[in-house]
Amino acid sequence: MNAELRYAYAVAPPGLPPLPEGLRGVAGTVPRALEHAGLTAVVGTVPADDFAEQPLRAHLEDLDWLAETARAHQAVVDALTEVTTPLPLRLATVHHDDDSVRRSLEADREELAGTLDRLAGRVEWGVKVYAETDRAQRRAAPAASPSAAGGAPEGCARSPADAAPGSGRAYLRRRMRAVSDRESALDEAENTGRTLHAALAGYAEDVRLHPPQDPRLSGASGQNLLNAAYLVPREGAGRFVERAEQLGAHDPVVRVEVTGPWAPYSFVAPASGRGRHAGGAAAEASS
User: Fold this and answer.
1) 68, 237, 264, 274: which has the highest count of C-beta atoms within 10 A?
2) Number of other CB atoms surrounding residue 280 within 10 Å
3) Is the pLDDT of residue 169 over 70?
4) Angle between helix 133-140 and helix 168-201 axes, rounded to 10 deg
5) Among 7, 229, 266, 271, which Cα is nearest to 113's?
6) φ and ψ of 145, to 5 deg
C-alpha cells in the first residue's frame, strides 16, 4: 500500500488560475492542479492510513469525521468556483497516485470536456420557497369575528351552548376556521411559488426541480413548496438574485431562500455512469 494517496476534488478547464494562498483541503493539505489530456484535475495528497479503502469505509460511518471532510472538500470547490467553472467530484474520490488520476482523465476526456464547454461561465443558484402558514393564522387572529370564539355570525341568535367558551360547538368552529386559514395561506403561497419559479426560469439556461425538503430533517420552519436549482450565466447573476428577492418580498406568508453561487452540482451528468461527480459519498481507489 502506498503511504500517500491522491484525493480528487474537481475537474476544471486547463490553465487554472492560482488558488487562494493558504487554502487547505481534506486532511489539511494544499490542493494543486494536475493537467493532462486538455483537462485539469484538482487534487491533494492524503494519508493511506485514513483514505485507503478499508479505513475510509470506517471513517464514512463517523459523522464528525465525515462532516469535517465534507467542509474541507467544499472549501476547495468554492475556491475553484470563484475563478472557473469546476465539475465537482464526489466526496471521497481517491486515487492511488498521479498516474491513476491521469488515466481517469483520459478515460472520460471526451465527456468531461463536453460538459465543461456546456457549463463554462455558468454557476448554480438554489432557491427554496416556504409557506409560513402559522404566520398567516397568527396575522388573521386579531381580526377574527366573534363567531371564531364560539359566537354566532352577526345578526344571528346564539344559543347558550354556542356562547360557552369551552363548548364543543365553539371548539369545532375555531378548528374549522384554523383549517380554512391554513388552506388559504397555503394556496396563496403555492401561487407565489409558481409565479416566482416561472420568472426565475426566464433568467436561467437550465433548471432542476428537487423534491421538497422534509422539515424534520432540514430543521427549517414552514412547508417547503419549491426546491429548485437554476443554471445562470455569471453576468446575469445579479439580476437573478434581485428578481428572486423582489418576488419574495411581497407575500408575508412566503419565505424565499436564495443560495449561491455554487459549482453546477445539479447540472453535471455522471461520467460514463461511474458516479464520479458530486452527489454522494463514495471511495474510488483507481488502479
Assistant:
1) 264
2) 9
3) yes
4) 130
5) 271
6) -75, 165
